[in-house]
Amino acid sequence: MLLVGTSLSVLTWNLAMLETSADAPRSWQVHDTEAAIREQVLIAAPDVLLYQELPRMVPYVETHDMIRANPRTHSGHLATLVTHDLMATAPRFVTVAGCALLTTFDDPAITIANVHLAPGPGPSAAAQRLAQLADVADASPTPALVIAGDTNTRADEIAEIRAAGFVAERPGRPTWDSRRNRFRDDAPAFTAYFTRWFASPDVVVSDVRVWDGPIERDGTHFHVSDHFALSATLTVGSNRG
Question: Are residues 84 and 70 in contact, defined by beta-carbon separation less than 8 angstroms?
Answer without folding.
Answer: no
